């Protein structure tokens, strides 16, 4: 496969220093790539800007644009097994997740937004001005910079790429330096689908490449998924330059388990919700609020189930929990486990790196703390690893305040048979998405995004079309 950058339809090595993509399960170097320079980023933006103004893309009829996106979706589906394997090698997620969740979701998004390409409409409105015909039209923004994360590289990129292209924009993609390979393979498939040169460009490298893209004056919008800290920097830079921005940032999702919940029935949903992708999910359930009368029972069941999960290479069909993406993430998990112990939480299982054949990879045992208090750092700060915290509550009246006592607001879960209570809580909890009696689910038609420090704007659904278009008012005098 290609490991160069794609700029204006040409595969080209970057002008910066080399860096490597590493298999987190083994430490094996998968590929050597080049860091993009500011000149490389500028070349990619210029190529995207030229393509935006071209007849081949800018002048393309919506139905033709939809046809190209559908062809790209077909190709992605045809190559799903290959790309899922590549994603597992590069990121570490078990193959059942990459082939059963990430790839189907990406294909679904392409097809969903291909359908929107012919349905992006304005409105007519009666004005209180005589003899005027008034209408609006939605128009593409131009060059969009898409900065993708390393936890679900291909899937989350597609949440941005599909609506951006459906609306008629062109893009420069900055893949995460830890996980660039599936993005580059996707770019090759878009070429094969017939997407014109310069419409989709990919630059590789780390934070400096992202900064160059964010600051480029010809980039009209930035869409970023990643940490809240970096999101604040990007938001500030876009604000100074009056540039549109969408930010999907960190999370510390509460999972509220009422006294009437069937603990055995809800256990798997909470275990999966907390440990999917080794806990490297911004929507991972990491704060379990359990009625104090059932706290110990739930904590014991959760830690028992977590302790039986099989760690291993994501390509191994027996693996249930893969590695973290990097040594830095392992160090972060270990640091928070130490903090949790120092704060006085009860470590029930895990809390260390496995030895033996897994020692060459970036593995960390699934970890459960019980007896956690609201003011402990492990209950308040995003760990982004397989570390779960169980907190007791005494009265349902406390739950809204407890769940909202955080700077984050991306997602939440509620488990109870009391339909009145769960719907009241769903309204009161400050989170962009609330799941009731279920583990995480996503759909291209359901808007996704955060409140508070978890981000700005929404992806998916019509909201994403709005995010990649501007509204123009057109007034016509009738006499």
From TrEMBL:
Pfam families: Aldedh. The active site is at 248. Keywords: Oxidoreductase. InterPro entries: Ald_DH/histidinol_DH, Ald_DH_C, Ald_DH_CS_CYS, Ald_DH_CS_GLU, Ald_DH_N, Aldehyde_DH_dom. Gene3D superfamilies: Aldehyde Dehydrogenase, Chain A, domain 1, Aldehyde Dehydrogenase, Chain A, domain 2. SUPFAM superfamilies: ALDH-like. Transmembrane segments: none annotated. Residues 11-474 form the Aldehyde dehydrogenase domain. Belongs to the aldehyde dehydrogenase family. PANTHER family: ALDEHYDE DEHYDROGENASE-RELATED. This is Aldehyde dehydrogenase family protein. It comes from Actinacidiphila acididurans.
């Amino acid at each position: 496969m290609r490991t160069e950058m794609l700029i204006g339809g040409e595969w080209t090595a970057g002008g910066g220093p080399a860096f490597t993509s590493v298999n987190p399960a083994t430490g094996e170097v998968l590929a050597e790539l080049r860091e993009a320079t500011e000149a490389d980023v500028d070349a990619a933006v210029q190529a995207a800007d030229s393509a935006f103004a071209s007849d081949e893309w800018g002048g393309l009829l919506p139905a033709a644009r939809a046809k190209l996106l559908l062809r790209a979706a077909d190709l992605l589906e045809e190559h799903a097994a290959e790309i899922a394997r590549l994603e597992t090698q590069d990121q570490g997620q078990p193959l059942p997740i990459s082939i059963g969740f990430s790839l189907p979701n990406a294909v679904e998004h392409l097809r969903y937004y291909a359908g929107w390409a012919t349905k992006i409409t304005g409105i007519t409105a009666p004005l209180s001005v005589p003899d005027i015909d008034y209408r609006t039209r939605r128009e593409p923004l131009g060059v969009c910079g898409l900065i993708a994360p390393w936890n679900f590289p291909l899937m989350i990129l597609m949440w941005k790429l599909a609506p951006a292209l459906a609306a008629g924009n062109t893009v420069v993609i900055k893949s995460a330096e830890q996980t660039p390979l599936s993005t580059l393979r996707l770019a090759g498939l878009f070429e094969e689908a017939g997407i014109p040169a310069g419409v989709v460009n990919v630059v590789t490298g780390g934070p400096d490449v992202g900064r160059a893209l964010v600051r480029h004056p010809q980039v009209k919008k930035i869409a970023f998924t990643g940490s809240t800290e970096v999101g604040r920097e990007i938001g500030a830079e876009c604000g100074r330059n009056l540039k549109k921005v969408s930010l999907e940032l960190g999370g510390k999702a509460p999972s509220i388990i009422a006294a009437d919940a069937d603990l055995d029935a809800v256990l798997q949903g909470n275990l999966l919700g907390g440990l999917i992708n080794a806990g490297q999910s911004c929507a991972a359930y990491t704060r379990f609020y359990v009625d104090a009368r059932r706290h110990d029972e739930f904590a014991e069941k959760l830690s028992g189930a977590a302790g039986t999960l099989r760690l291993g290479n994501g390509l191994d069909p027996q693996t249930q929990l893969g590695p973290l993406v990097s040594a830095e993430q392992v160090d972060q998990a270990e640091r928070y486990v130490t903090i949790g112990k120092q704060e006085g939480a009860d470590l029930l299982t895990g809390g260390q790196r496995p030895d033996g054949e897994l020692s060459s990879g970036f593995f960390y045992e699934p970890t459960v703390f019980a007896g956690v208090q609201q003011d402990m750092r492990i209950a308040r700060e995003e760990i982004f690893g397989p570390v779960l915290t169980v907190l007791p509550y005494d009265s349902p009246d406390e739950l809204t305040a407890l769940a909202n006592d955080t700077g984050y607001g991306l997602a939440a879960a509620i488990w109870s048979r009391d339909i009145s209570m769960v719907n009241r809580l769903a309204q009161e909890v400050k989170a962009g998405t609330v799941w009731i009696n279920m583990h995480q689910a996503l759909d291209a038609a359901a808007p996704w995004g955060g409140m508070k420090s978890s981000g700005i704007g929404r992806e998916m659904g019509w909201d994403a079309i709005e995010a990649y278009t501007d509204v123009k008012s057109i007034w016509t005098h009738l006499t």
